[in-house]
Amino acid sequence: MATIQQQQQRRDRIRLALLLTPGLLWLLLFFALPLVIIFLYSFMTNDALGRVVYEPTLNNYITIFTQSLYVNAYWRSIWTSVLTTVICLLIGYPLAVFIARSPQQWRMPLLMLILIPFWTNFLVRIYAWQIILANNGIINSFLEIIGIGRLTLLNTEGATLIGLIYGELPFMVLPLYAAIDRFDFTLMEAAADLGANKVQAFLRIMLPMTMPGIVAGSVLVFIPTLGQFVVSELLGGAKVDYLGNLIQRLFLRANPINWPLGSAMAVLMMLVLLVLIMMYFRVTSEEER
Amino acid sequence: MSDSIAIELCDVVKRFGDVVAVDHVNLQIRDGEFFSLLGPSGCGKTSTLRMIAGFELPTAGSILIHGREMGITPPHLRPVNTVFQSYALFPHMTVAQNVAFGLEMRKTPKAEIARQVKEALELVRLSGLEDRRPRQLSGGQQQRVALARALVNHPEVLLLDEPLGALDQKLRKEMQLELKSLQARVGITFVFVTHDQEEALTMSDRIAVMNKGKLLQVGTPTEIYERPNCRFVADFIGETNFIDGVVIGRDGNYTVLETPEGLRLRGLAARPLSDGTAVTYSIRPEKVRLLAPNGELPPNGLAGTVMTVNYIGSDTRITVRINDQRTIDIWEQNTRSTLDRDEYWQPGEAAVIVCPPDNALVLSE
Amino acid sequence: MIKTAPATTASARIRGAFSEGRLTWSGLALTVFSILVYLFLYVPIVILVIFSFTRDEFGVRWTGFTFDWYIRLFNNPRMMGAAWNTLVVATVSTIVSTIIGTLLAMAMERYRFRGRNAIEGLIYLPIVVPEIVMAVALLAFSAIIFDVIRMVTGEVLRRNLATVTIGHIAFSISFVVVVVRTSLKNFDRRLEEAAADLGADSWNIFWRITFPLILPGIIGGALLAFTLSLDDFIISLFLSGPGTSLLPVEVYNRVRRAITPEINAISTLMLILSMALVALSQVLQRRR
User: Is 1.10.287.950 the CATH classification of the domain at B240-364?
Assistant: First the structure.
């Protein structure tokens, strides 16, 4: 019997290897290895022509931590991402409740309506806001007609925020909807029956039970927002630098380019992300308890 | 029913990690019989069935189907078919496609497939539903498709894994009778796994009772009910009164035991037991007789007091207290109307119960 | 009668928004709020489409209807080339990532093995790593590979459609795995046993039972991979080379300079393509 099982085990192992190898190779070679490379790059030196010199140094990190350009970019990106996430949550939660409480046959269409913009190109969606907010665009034309006069809407940090919220909202609504749809609303009646008012029932029952959706949605919104550079460039007018703008410039446009410094910024961004997400998980899991 | 053996299990063991699911089972299932594997969940009956089907391989021992050693023969090469608990109908195929699947795998010619599918669906009375999808059928209909899908292959043995479990009570009773008559018509050996003792008693030619991976008793429904060979079987099949005691001797055909409080009872033992053996006295409630006291105790009689009297239509169920620790349940068939309450037992009345020794068993272990 | 009908359905819809079917102030507020959010989501897109037909050359105000921008677009070889590139990259990326992702999903869902958790992490990491990090990492990696090739063979390579495609596949695999795994999880493995029981060997079991039943999941994964590739901008920007531009990158380069209705026109076409894909996926899902 042992040999039969060994035979079967060997056949299984060969099958498993065939299934795993292509995917693993691809991810290791074209995802993991490149990440290792920029990690190593972040400790290298750059020469005046923008070439990487393989000379170990901590200068890149020192630059980031000491020059206000970089420090400010980190704070700005983190702050904007937090703000975007919170606003998306505040808009997305009621919306998800609305969809989940709709009659059965309406839910899927309502959800699809959230999804369709997500399926259109991000750049196109941001561009749409450029048209709306432009100095001679729709809003300003309207403001002119009613006599308020033109305002500077485009190329402001507010415009950046609107673009980010607009772009990321679907990522918040989807997991929230999944969590709220599973939530049994008779529990709210049970809480009311036991003497809780609406706010108490929400805070003690619904919020903790839908926390997984809140966490998932927040993470999904926060990650791309932290690294964005298109929105701040097209709607914010590239007046202030966010993390993504600096990294993009250091890798593609700066004169000279500086890949080691850009790599160090990318590595630090991952680190910030890791720390913030871990903190978030800790706080929200306490909430759940 | 011929005497040839359809399935033979020789010392079969199945281990899942540290858990012994099937523990040295030896079993012979005869050709053409309706054979049930009965036991509580986790007793190893489903594992046994899955080993016969080939979904699991025995850790040790061998399985023979019509004398052929199955060894590591994969399921698709075994001459058996299974009706699954959840039916496992292919949701993307129509009823006809489901039934045809096995024949297609055997490369049966198209015309032949069409003919046999039609026949099989007629057999289970599903003609006209060929083009439905499984999810458009009721539970009972799905059940019939599963049966047709298995039977159309003319398996040497049909394995049924709790196939009636998902049906409601009424449909279940109907399907029990239908399955039984179907089996008689097609003449294929059925191996039926169930945890429902009543179902097993109704349908089976023979029953094997399993518990904790061990095969406890194999026999006809009557044998299993009337002569259980151990406390577990007596307890699992039907209701019974148990009284613990030790053997103190023999009296003709009967073995005599004494309870801790000194009561002496006689009953049948499956084998001779030496004095001092710890045993359980077992008597079915409908076998106990209840008499009015008339001064002296009859043989194998116990004096007691009626505690509760519950009328349930066909029977009246009476509990009699014998002493501080013990009560005995008695079911009396309502051969007469009990509307006239004065003529019937009342709680608090003194009574004498008699355990006819030919219907009482002395079980060891 | 006919005139009142829409009003009835609208009020029925609003009433239906509350489980008990009665109108409450909080329920009404929720409904109004949600309608506003939907407007917020759709108004920009509608404006974008409308302004692809304006005569105004800055594309921000309505000065009359014209098809000119579409005609100009179709006569713009740069834009058409970029569109073609985008479709080629998306198609190749979809095919490769769907195959690789499906295999990986099968391995993860069907087998227990050592290192499984580590591989699980590796698979999901691309979803949580910011795209820009992945983009610069792949850029650095490709530069090193090109350097090595130049030193070994003397051939000078530049970033091209292949580098972009490799990048798209790398992030698409994870999403395909997620989608296909869900359908594998929902797949009842007893159906495979039933097929084996009925005489099917492992080849027939896979192609007759498993594959048809997880096909909606695979198609779902493929459509997601396709939209992700069409939609992708960041990796495309970093990994495409000169002369091999992709549509989003081309749009970006144009938008940075000036707004013109030509961009609206190409955006509208991209929008229609995305909508068609969504509709297709819905139809396929429903046919299951």
Answer: no
